[in-house]
Each structure stands twice: as structure tokens, then as C-alpha cells.
Amino acid sequence: MTYEQALKVLTQKQSLGIMPGLSRIEKILEDAGNPQEKLKIIHIAGTNGKGTVSKIISQSLIDAGFKIGRFSSPWVCDYREQIEVNNKYIDKSVFASLVGEYSQYDATEFELLTAIMFIYFEMSKVDYAVIECGMGGLEDSTNAFSSPFACVITSVSEDHTNFLGNSIIEIAENKSGIIKKNTNVILYPNPKTEEVFEKKCKSENARLYKIPDYNSIKLNNIASAKKCLELCGVNKVCNYPFLPARQERIGRFILDGSHNPSAAMALADVLKEEAKAVCVLGMMRDKNIEEYIKIISPFVSELVLCSPSNSRAASCEELFGYADKYCDKITKAKSPLEALKIAEKKTNGLILICGSFFLARDLREYLF
Description:
alpha/beta; UDP-N-acetylmuramoyl-L-alanine:D-glutamate ligase; Protein-Tyrosine Phosphatase, Chain A; 2 domains; 6-stranded mixed beta sheet; 14 helices; 14 strands; 40% helix
């Protein structure tokens, strides 16, 4: 199987959608010899900040001389960026070989990808595997192992409510599912859900390390990562990381793939310091579209709506139904690229591209 064929296999599995549960991936991993049980895992769950915290932890451990596997999602630049060892993407031939070996199993795209990650990290003999949950925690495919070295819970807010629960408490309870017996748990300041994690840690006899609130997302992320690193015997923390499509500046563009109200508030803090932007907006229909638009709309002069390249994407008409309440100037585009070109004609100033990592993926290469 070639790399291109492997990507096609995974793309075809996208049609299965999201299917919470561990039975399918457990079958793959059992047949592969349960590689996940041979890894020292740092497991990270949360609504926002997983990528940043996991990157700080992994890079700091690499700087300290450890061999580190890091699993993250979604991808923005290269599909293989989701599976890397010491900042090097999984080799294309290795990736294709593993997809070919396990593609016949009944599994979603993310489940197969997760299984390949566990297998590859065990093959690579990593010292630590820093693994981000895809969604939630309890039934996320990354949770198919018995005992982590440490769990990190980042900022928790409402997202994926159709899968994780209709309240922030229910969502926190799902994310607390990564906490297992006698493990270390680092908790980012989450005053609304703190009791959920305290209760879970008590029931599992887990050691809870609560991070004080520094009234700064950046400082809270650093402190959460630092505590985890201390448990690994590492005291030096790397510089705050750059991650593509996370408030990324490319010339006069700001590219941000985050998609929930809490992330919109973090983006709004950045936009407060800028002149009003023309905004290219695309979102998935299962997100809280109205609340997201409500938060960013005071900082944009005009919206250009589009539908990202994903089957779950909201149409321009669906977006318009929410946006019309908050913005007077709205244009609908036939594609993300057309939307960007329209925005470029409307202003010589700041252009904001936001609402979805799928939209960021559609446009980032063009921006460069």
C-alpha cells in the first residue's frame, strides 16, 4: 500500500463518523499484542488548550533528553503531524504499512489512527507517550489502556454536547473518565467543574494536583505542563509553543481553527487590540454557532461566510441564520478560497479566518 492509498482508506472511513466506545479499537490492539500497555502515557483531556499543553510537555521532555511520542489532532498542514516522535512525523512508508495491515478492521478513521499511534510508539520505544484525547475521555479511543503515568485536564467548557452531555458537569464527568486508579492528575483551573474531578480522584485513589488560577490562559497552561514535568523529574520548561491555526499570524491574516465559545473569548481578547477585521467564517453545524458569532462579532466589520471541506460543515445559509442577528454586512461565498479572495478585495487591513480547523486546512497553504 502506498501512502496515498493509505490516506484514501482513512478518508473512506470518515463516512462512519464519530462512534464513541472502546470495543473496536480494543480488538485491533489485542491482535497487535496490546502495545499501549507497554507505554508510559501522559494522557491529556480538556476542551481547549490540549495542543498547547501537550506541546510544552513533549518539547520540554525532548529538551531534557527523552524520546517522546506525541499524538495530537486535528491535523492542519500534514496528516502525519498527528503522530510524531521527537518532532518528526511518522515515516510515510511505515504509516502506509500499518494502515495496510489493520485497515480491514471495523473501526472509524480516528480509531484506526489511534491504534496505529499506539503500535508506532511501542515500535519506536519512546520514553513517554504524550497523548491528547480526540473528544471527551471516557469512551475516546485514546483511553484504551489500563494505567497512565499522569493525566492532565486542561480548560473544560461546553463542546460536542451531542456526544458528551448537555451541561458542563456532564462534559466534565466524561472527561474525568481518563482518570484511573493510583495515577497522577494535574487539573487546570476549572472552578465550575472542580468537584467532578475531585470526586473522581477520590474514588480512584488518584493524586490530584490543582493548579492555582493565574488569571491568564497562557500562564495556566504553562503551570499545568510544569507540574506534569516535575513529576517526570524535569524542571526546565520550553518556550511557549507555536501551533498552526491557533491565533496564527500570517502577514495581515489571523488564522484560528478553534470553534467553541471559550475559544472565541480567547480570540476576542486578541482582537480587542486590533482594528476591526473582515472575517472569513466557516464552522461545523454541530458547534454552538450562534454563541461563537455573538462573541467575535463586535470585533469584525464584515463577515464572509463559507462552508469548509467537510461533510459536517454548516452551509452558508445555516451560518447566515445566526450571523444576521449580530452583523449588518454579510457576504456568502461558494468556497473557502472564494471567501478569502472576497475578503482580500474588501480590505487592505486585517483579515480574520476562523471557526474551524477544517477551514484553516482549506486556506493555510494559500496564505503562504
